Input
Amino acid sequence: MKVKRIIALALALVMCFAFAACNNDDAQTNDPGMTNAEEGQTAENMTFAKEGTLMIGGIGPLTGDNAQYGNAVKLGAELAVKEINATGGINGYEVAFRMEDDVSQEEKAVTAYNNLKDWGMQMLMGTVTSAPCKAVSTETEADNMFLLTPSGSSVDCIEPDTAFRVCFSDPNQGVGAADYISANSLATKIGIIYNSSDTYSTGIKDKFVEVAPSKGLEVVGEEAFTNDSATDFNAQLTNLRDAGAELLFLPIYYTPASLIMTQAKAMGYTPLYFGSDGMDGILGMDNIDTTLVEGVMYLTPFIESSTDEATAKFVKSFTAAYPDQTQYMNQFAADAYDAMFIIKAAAEKANVTPDMEISAIGDAMKVAMTEITVNGVTGTGITWDASGEPTKQPRVAKIVNGEITAA
Output
């Protein structure tokens, strides 16, 4: 057996040297913007220097009201994995990725986690939304499994020592929204509609309300709804209109946001709208009336029309890989794409190998995450401390003529 492994390894090394000799580049690159086409190779024909596969799982809503987010994450992660494998994998090992559907529900997210463990998952890129992420983080904590959520922004998503995030946190969004509204004199009387049954929505709302007075903003009303009552917003809208709200702050997901805008228009109420990152994806909804969302602003780490090199390369790669699914090219796809390259950077720093126990990988990754700096699509010079929070700030997008632009 040992002789066979030595022969196999020798053959693999010969093939790698032969491949390198045919390549015009002097060295491989970890540039996340480089596509398979640009490298002239694919994961299918890549020869890996080492035996074994690193198994990375993903969890998110591939169906249901928040499917826009989960499918975007799935495609962004798969694109990154293809590019990582095309340039040698992680520490010379191939990467396998599998995504499970949680319909944005805690119980189903835990089921998905257990399914992925049965598959052989060693690290988790997920989950996508906050409440399921919190539920799953309890499971990863028990297993000491490394977790990197691309978009779970609730503070308690990353309580375990081995849990980190790519996106900015809910409190960060609350402060960022208040700062922008105040600095740009968008309005002084603010109304809020939030989901009281959702930790994501409540967390952003609470921080916004806390800091608003110091920014010269008056919150004239806080109107709540729950997951079970997210269909009729006429009472909330009437109250806020009568209170004189000039701008509605909506720290919620795009599906209820679209209903709020539709019902406000029907009653002749035309406030400005400012949302959190959950608003991203509203233009990808089936049959969306673009005039309804004209002028809507929201926080985001990714704006497709940005001209920086990393964004331009990501847009080019995503469009080439998924020409019929560009509705998913949003911040969630970009966060997931960055997440995979972040995992690669940390795993290489920690020298992670497929034969390591899950807990050992978790211990190694939690240290390595505090020692790396990543330039990604959603931020440059990103670092992490032991809390799991990234050093990055949100940007503001504005929908103009049916297109997402930088505000």
